[in-house]
From TrEMBL:
It comes from Geodermatophilus maliterrae. This is Molybdopterin molybdenumtransferase. Its cofactor is Mg(2+). Pathway: Cofactor biosynthesis; molybdopterin biosynthesis. InterPro entries: MoaB/Mog-like_dom_sf, MoaB/Mog_dom, MoeA-like, MoeA_C_domain_IV, MoeA_C_domain_IV_sf, MoeA_linker/N, MoeA_linker/N_sf.
Length: 466
């Protein structure tokens, strides 16, 4: 974003997902309608001032960074658990895995060929080959001890134990493939195509370090050092619920005024994609006692509770019950879509509860901005936010002043290099089909009201598992 419609030049484009959101620094929005002003009165020092009546709660306008910082500073770090190595895939290692054995455990050939002494084949050339006697053959697997004397060769396959005295393997393609005697057409240097004992991992050294993501390569190494179980940072248990008397499940046929509950499905899928163990509870009951029971049970079984259906209606039953379970705050956040957000730590264990809007597009945008970083923090990930790129806007973009706008779009490579992005819709239309076609979010900062066609914008690619 380098241009505005007014012609003002920005000092620098701000990558909204690369900010240090744990710094605690917040900036008041330029159009805050609720300034915090307290009247002062003169009090006689000899008198005890009367207690001030409590001020009515009003929604607080706060920045995206401030709301996200509150969430990230409050989410817990689950204790490590021990899992079978295959079940640990995708998680972070929570221990220093020290090998008790050497890898490899014996000197072995790297490829098929002939194990020889380097000095015996020094100077060998295609037009002046060195001829050696073949005294044996070893394949990968159990093998008895063998040894070489000067002028001898031992045929080996990849992974086979090297005979004592051999310090190099001549690839089979560099020989005539002889069985009794072999002609060597080139002499490799000492150690070529040989894997010595402990070259990979020596006993007493760390094979996998704390904080290492466990993927196929790490599982291979864990198996090689004899570990069938490993300590990992567990997947956070996330309960996903939806609030709204107008909601019906997807198996029901909605009547006029009713809408299908898509949020618990979409948000549970998003939580799983972020790495959580997500549980879709469904639509919250509308009877107070049953609602309280459901929320209390989810607080007991979850590391994080996610509720879709945030709004600011007075007398909302869900908000009342949440407030009975702990300090819960609902605020206006300077973002669009989905400015109304809620957060609190409820229950005896102070479980984080994040409330997002009930409109499905706003719910998923809110998930990307607030919930996904929280889940990755609980997983112990270093990279909490999706990587962003700068892209050329394919058309003019308009955004409300004072609000950070998130637009769905399609980003693609530009033929001349870099990226170009095309918005899907104008930001005021909540269309699921358009969202499903999007592969990115276009981020327009709070102080930008217009981006001209051809201007630069920040783009957050929405890669699955990314």
């Amino acid at each position: 974003m380098t241009e505005h419609s007014t012609g003002r030049a920005r000092v620098a484009a701000r990558d909204t997902t690369a900010l240090d959101l744990r710094s605690g620094a917040t900036v008041d929005p330029p159009t805050s309608p609720v300034p915090s002003v307290h009247a002062t009165t003169q009090i006689d020092p000899g008198q005890v001032p009367p207690p001030r009546p409590p001020e009515p709660e009003t929604p607080l306008l706060r920045t995206v960074e401030a709301h996200l910082d509150e969430i990230l500073s409050a989410v817990p770090q689950p204790e490590p658990i021990e899992l079978a190595v295959l079940d640990a895939q995708g998680l972070l290692c929570a221990e220093e895995v020290v090998s008790a054995r050497a890898l490899p455990s014996f000197d072995q050939a790297v490829l098929d060929g002939y194990a020889v002494r380097a000095e015996d084949v020094a100077g060998a050339m295609p037009d002046a080959p060195v001829e050696l006697a073949v005294v044996g053959e070893t394949v990968a697997g159990a093998a008895g001890p063998s040894a070489l004397t000067p002028g001898q060769a031992h045929k080996v396959t990849a992974g086979a134990m090297l005979p004592t005295g051999a310090d190099v393997v001549v690839p089979a393609v560099w020989t005539d493939g002889g069985v009794v005697r072999v002609q060597v057409h080139a002499g490799p240097e000492v150690g070529s195509w040989v894997r010595r004992t402990g070259d990979d991992v020596s006993p007493g050294t760390a094979a996998v370090h704390v904080g290492t993501p466990i993927g196929p390569a790490q599982i291979s190494l864990l198996a090689a050092v004899g570990r069938d179980r490993v300590q990992v940072r567990p997947r956070p248990r996330v309960a996903v619920l939806s609030a709204g008397s107008e909601l019906v499940d997807i198996t029901a046929t909605p009547t006029p005024g009713q809408v299908v509950d898509v949020n618990t499905y979409a948000l549970a899928a998003a939580a799983r994609d972020a790495g959580a163990s997500a549980y879709r509870w469904g639509i919250l009951p509308t009877e107070r006692r049953r609602l309280t029971e459901v929320l209390e049970s989810q607080l007991l079984r979850s590391d994080l509770v996610l509720i879709a259906g945030t709004h600011t209606t007075e007398g909302d039953l869900v908000q009342e019950v949440l407030a009975e379970l702990g300090p819960m705050r609902f605020r206006q956040v300077t973002m669009h879509p989905g400015p109304v957000q809620g957060f609190g730590r409820l229950g005896r264990d102070g479980v984080p509860v994040i409330c997002v809007p009930g409109e499905p597009v706003a719910a998923l945008v809110s998930f990307e901005v607030f919930v996904r970083p929280a889940i990755r923090s609980m997983l112990g990930k270093r990279q909490l936010f999706r990587r962003t790129v700068q892209a050329i806007a394919a058309e003019r973009l308009v955004s409300p002043l004072g609000y950070r706008q998130y637009l769905h779009g399609q980003v693609m490579r530009h033929p001349d290099g870099g990226y170009v992005v095309e918005p899907l819709g104008d930001g005021d239309e909540a269309m699921l089909a358009r969202m499903a076609r999007a592969n990115c979010l276009i981020v327009v900062d709070e102080d930008v009201t217009e981006v001209a066609e051809g201007g630069l914008v920040t783009v957050m690619p929405l890669l699955l598992g990314g």
